[in-house]
UniProtKB/TrEMBL annotation:
Ca(2+) 2 binds at T190, D242, D249. One of its GO terms (biological process) is hydrogen peroxide catabolic process. Residues 1-23 form the signal peptide. Transmembrane segments: none annotated. It is found in: Secreted. It comes from Castanea mollissima (Chinese chestnut). The record marks R60 as: Transition state stabilizer. Ca(2+) 1 binds at D65, G70, D72, S74, E86. It comes from the Eukaryota. Its EC number is 1.11.1.7. Removal of H(2)O(2), oxidation of toxic reductants, biosynthesis and degradation of lignin, suberization, auxin catabolism, response to environmental stresses such as wounding, pathogen attack and oxidative stress. These functions might be dependent on each isozyme/isoform in each plant tissue. It catalyses: 2 a phenolic donor + H2O2 = 2 a phenolic radical donor + 2 H2O. This is Peroxidase.
Length: 317
C-alpha cells in the first residue's frame, strides 16, 4: 500500500500546479458512508450480469470525464436551455451505461444522503468494471467533488482516434500525464466496441496515394472493410476493440505489434521509440501492464476540479 500512497501524494503535487485539488484519501467515507464501495460494486455487478458491454462503457465514461475539467462528473450533466452539455458533444454521443451511476447514486442517497459524489461513483465504478473483466483491482483515493459546468464545445479536447503520437503526447501532458501513462491507459482499449466512424478513414480513401492506411495489417483491413459498409450506410456497424473484448488482458498490445490496432492512435504508439518499447513490454507481461495501468489510473483519477456533492448526478444542486 505504501508505494501507492506515495505515488498518489506525488501526483497531487503535480496536479496542484494546474487544477484545484480536493484532498483525496483512501478512507474518505470510512465514517460517513462505510458501505459506499460495496453499494457501487453491487450496481456495477448487477448491470454487467445483464449486459456484458457495461464494464467497457464505465471505463470509457471515467476517461471522458477526467479529460475535461478533471474527474468531476461533468460528463453526466444534462443539457439545459441553450447550454449543450459534454454528454451531447460529438465524442460522447456513444457513451452508455450512465444508468449504472444513477442506480448506485440512488442507493447511496438512501443510505447516506448528500455524502458520496457522483465523481467518486464514476471513479469507483471504473475500477470495479476493470476488476469484473478479469483485470486488476486497486484502492481508489476518494473525496472528489462534482462540477457545476459542462460544455459540449469542450469535448473537442478529448484525444481523438486519429491522433498522431505528438498530438497524444500533448493531450496527455496538458493533464500532467506522461508517455508511460499514455501507453498504459491506451490498454483500456482491450475491452469494448467501436463504431466504424472511428476507424473508417483508415480502410477507405486513406489518402491520394493509398486507399488503405499503410500502418494497418492488410488482412485486418480487409476484414474491417467487410464489417463497415461505405460511409453513412449503417450507424451501428462496428467491431470489438480486440477479440477478447469482455476480458481485460494484454491482447491489445499484441495486436498493435501485429499492425492490428483498430485506431490510428493505437498504431501511433509504435511511431515513438519509448512508447514502442512499452508496447513490447506490456505485450509480453500481463503483470507489467496491470501494474502500470493501476499506477496511471490512480494518477489520472486524481485530477479534480468539482465544487459540490450533487443530489442527482444529472443536474447541479
Amino acid at each position: 500500500m505504501a508505494p501507492i500512497v506515495a505515488l498518489f501524494l506525488s501526483s497531487v503535487l503535480i496536479f496542484s500546479v494546474f487544477s484545484p485539488v480536493n484532498s483525496l484519501s483512501y478512507n474518505y467515507y470510512e465514517k460517513t458512508c462505510p458501505h459506499a464501495e460495496s453499494i457501487i460494486a453491487y450496481a456495477v455487478k448487477t448491470a454487467t450480469s445483464k449486459d456484458k458491454t457495461v464494464p467497457a462503457a464505465l471505463l470509457r465514461l471515467h476517461f471522458h470525464d477526467c479529460f475535461i475539467r478533471g474527474c468531476d462528473a461533468s460528463v453526466l450533466l444534462k443539457s439545459k436551455g441553450s447550454n449543450k452539455a459534454e454528454k451531447d458533444g460529438p465524442p460522447n454521443l456513444s457513451l452508455h451505461a450512465l444508468y449504472v451511476i444513477d442506480s448506485a447514486k440512488k442507493d447511496l442517497e438512501t443510505w447516506c444522503p448528500g455524502v458520496v459524489s457522483c465523481a467518486d461513483i464514476v471513479a469507483l465504478a471504473a475500477r470495479d468494471a476493470v476488476a469484473l473483466s478479469g483485470g486488476p483491482s486497486w484502492d481508489v483515493p476518494k473525496g472528489r467533488k462534482d462540477g457545476r459546468t459542462s460544455k459540449a464545445s469542450e469535448t473537442i479536447k478529448l484525444p481523438a482516434p486519429n491522433f498522431t503520437i505528438s498530438q497524444l503526447q500533448q493531450s496527455f501532458s496538458q493533464r500532467g500525464l506522461s508517455l508511460d501513462d499514455l501507453v498504459a491507459l491506451s490498454g483500456g482499449h482491450t475491452i469494448g466496441f467501436s463504431h466504424c466512424s472511428s476507424f473508417q478513414q483508415r480502410i477507405q480513401n486513406f489518402n491520394a496515394t493509398h486507399d488503405i492506411d499503410p500502418s494497418i495489417n492488410p488482412s485486418f483491413a480487409a476484414k474491417l472493410r467487410g464489417v463497415c459498409p461505405k460511409k453513412g450506410k449503417s450507424k451501428n456497424a462496428g467491431t470489438t476493440m480486440d477479440p477478447s473484448s469482455t476480458t481485460f488482458d494484454n491482447t491489445y498490445y499484441k495486436l498493435v505489434l501485429k499492425k492490428k490496432g483498430l485506431f490510428s492512435s493505437d498504431q501511433a504508439l509504435l511511431s515513438n521509440p519509448k512508447t514502442k518499447n512499452l508496447v513490447r513490454k506490456f505485450a509480453t507481461s500481463t503483470e507489467a501492464f496491470s501494474k502500470a495501468f493501476v499506477k496511471s489510473m490512480i494518477k489520472m483519477s486524481s485530477l479534480t476540479g468539482g465544487q459540490e456533492i450533487r443530489k442527482d448526478c444529472r443536474v447541479v444542486n
